[in-house]
Amino acid sequence: MAAHASIALPRADWLALHHEDAIEPDLPIVDAHHHLWVLPGASYLQADLGQDLRTGHDIRATVFVDCHSHYLADGPEALRPVGETAFAAAQALAFAQTGSRTQICAAIVGWADLALGDGIEPVLERHIEAGQGRFRGIRARPTWHRDPAVHPATEGREGILRDDTARQEATRRLGAMGLSLDLWVYHTQLPDVAFLADQCPDTPMVLNHCGGPLGIGPYAGQRAQVFDAWRGHIRALAQRPNLRLKLGGLAMHRMGFGLDLADRPALSEVIANAWSPYFEVCIEAFGADRCMFESNFPVDKVGCSYPVLWNAFKHATKACSPSERTQLFSGTAARTYGIDLSLQPAS
Q: What is residue 159's three-state secondary structure?
């Protein structure tokens, strides 16, 4: 099963129009969210990730997150996603043979059907086995909006996190097994995330992509209004201690910043200025020890290159203290996903 064909593909010739050297190259980073996949004419595998990692930033480890790719071709439907976990573990082992100091896929976040309820446990056990010590949990993507201009539903429908008791039971089972739940939803669905967090307080949850503040369809030209609504939701979510937050994903087209529509790639300072208000709200609400930066590559590669992205994150956090930046760039992700950074080989 391939990654979703609706994903926009990066344009190498366009990205080549702007180059930046990495700033603060000695700041340790755990990339808390990336994908590996094969799309027609656009594979992004461990060697491709490796090229991005070698652009100057000190990436100590990465977290692989599901993209519905490399599923098993046969066998029980519920177990087919285990193939993606096995694939990610194999990619990690292959990359380790290159001698790089970076632990790619040091943590693996796969996929399993929450609709299985209690029946999710044997599926998770198979993921754990396939992950060879790297499997940390699953991601659900119940993105939903009634306007098709925003995005067609993946796993979502209106109220799915609130009214589906099987999904709630599966979420509790994750926590009982020492695993976490990543969530990708739009800002309009954030109250439902709060409800799920309250129903499953013992399950660690990680909200992806700043909580999905939309900027297309009915939200085009409504940035101030969206920001105000989104900010209120983020502040409410921060009251749930089992929730953490990934800072990133804002280069995606549906966020409405238009990086992918410009004649040339933007400078990292320009990107930082556009995104800083969102990061500031998240960090103020959750604290640096519950926030972590993510590249969301190669999805966000439609808007900027890897070195430019991390430069933007660094520019955006200049006002943070050294201890806060340590948490944002590596500490929170390492702690959330059980990554031992002491395993780094000497450079």
A: coil
Start-end of H helices in the chain? 12-15, 46-53, 82-96, 120-130, 160-163, 165-176, 190-199, 223-237, 268-286, 306-316, 322-326, 332-336
| pLDDT class of 176 with cuts at 50, 70, 90 | very high
* Residue-range domain boundaries for the chain: 12-340
Name, in order, each residue with C-beta under 8 angstroms of 169's C-beta and a sequence gap of 6 or more.
117, 118
- How many CB atoms neighbour CB 310 within 10 A? 29
Q: CA nearest 57: which of 307, 242, 287?
A: 307
Cα separation, 95 vs 85, whole angstroms: 15
Q: What is the CA radius of gyration of the chain?
A: 19
Tokens at 142, concatenated: 């119940």
CB 347 within 8 A of CB 59: no
76 residue type, one letter: P
DSSP 166: H
CB 29 within 8 A of CB 319: no
pLDDT of residue 241: 99
Residue 41 has a pLDDT of: 72
∠ Cα 174 180 185 (to 5°) = 110
Q: Span 12-340: which CATH code?
A: 3.20.20.140
- The residue type of 318 is K
